[in-house]
Amino acid sequence: MKKKILTVALCLSLAVGLYACGGQSTEKKESAVSSEEAKESSNAEDKEKEKADASANTDSASRDVIRWNAGTSGNVLMTIAEEKGFLKDEGVNIEFVPATANADAMTMLSTGKVDVVSNSGTSNPLQQISSGVDLTIFGGHMLTGAMPIIAKKGTQWEGVKSLIGKKFACNPSYFALTGAVMELGYDKPLEALEWVTYKNYSDALAAVAKGEVDFALQGTGQNFAVKNMDDVEIVAYQSDIMPNYSCCRVESTTEYFKNNKDKLKKVLKALIRAQEYYQRNKEEAAKLHAAKIDTEVDYVNAYMQDEHYRVHIDPLKKSVERAWNILDKTGFLDEKAKDINIDDHINTDLYKEALDEVIAEHYDENKEFYDGLKQFYEENNT
């Protein structure tokens, strides 16, 4: 460092001497050359960057684009598929379209403002179908969403029968709960207890804390808040009440589905590979997803590392049929539902094609995982 300073000082001294003698300073010449070289180097770097950007833009533009709504909590498998290049491998580009609520997402889907919805539950698309909106369910997101049932600390819980005659902060369109009440022998589950509906899960949580209700169902994203409260505890999860209840299905309009099967199969293939990666790398997945939805890793880990949180791409035909029947019996489907065969709105073939192709290409990477997917498909769709 000292040598460098000394050299600079000597150069400056020489330059000053030459200028005083009436000679031309070499500093200006050297400076001009140095400046020109730097300019040329900078221009070269800019050109390379422009080429790289153009290449990336061309690559992205050449891919099939699907406008996708993944709710406010996002879709961890889509995050992985993007970050690990699985979508790029399939030639698919996802354009995420935001919506502030499930109802908004379904409206955007039916009006053509979005192509696919993956985070709006199962009740929402089924109710849309019952009202005459032509949708096709062709995949899944969350199989079970780690949705906790909470109560004040110390509250006795003996299963669903503990809800009977009590105040329960839960929308009765949540078919897993009404279905379980019917299984206890109550033909009219909406009368077996008091179902209290709040604007959001936070209000329901506050109602439990204040003692206004006995129990409340919470959303997936509430796990962090609930698990850090002193006066409220989790007594069960919705998946304890009804295993594989089909938390969130993936759907599009039937017209879009029929006209874009190749594109949709590509994204299913990418998501199947993402599911395999997720199973082996849940901690990394949580970090990737936290960054994607701009939140803390602890918040994501609160539900993602819970055994009740399970993601799965399978369409889950049998569970969707079960949900349809429960919603019908409890009066949450439109009168038009009696003329609708729900099987006409569930497509399992495209997922099976995607699964078969992924297995043909990647089976040796994780044989046990892919064998499990094949078995799961047979159990839940045939």
N/C terminus separation: 76 Å
Q: Structural class of the helix and strand makeup? A: alpha/beta
Quaternary:
single chain
Total count of strands: 12
Spatial arrangement of strands, main beta sheet = 8-7-9-6-10
Average predicted local confidence, pLDDT: 88
Low-pLDDT residue spans: 1-35, 54-58
How is the main sheet built? 5 strands, mixed
Please write the string of helix (H) and strand (E) elements.
HHEHHEHEHEEEEHHEHEHEHEHHHHEHHH
Question: Helix coverage percent of residues?
Answer: 40-55%
Strand content: 5-15%
Overall outline? globular
Count of helical segments?
Answer: 18
- Integer-rounded radius of gyration: 29 Å
Care to describe what's here?
54% of the residues lie in helices and 13% in strands. It has 18 helices and twelve strands. The strands form four sheets. Strands 8-7-9-6-10 form a five-stranded mixed beta sheet. A three-stranded parallel beta sheet has the order 2-1-3. Strands 4-11 form a two-stranded antiparallel ribbon. The protein starts with a helix and ends with a helix.
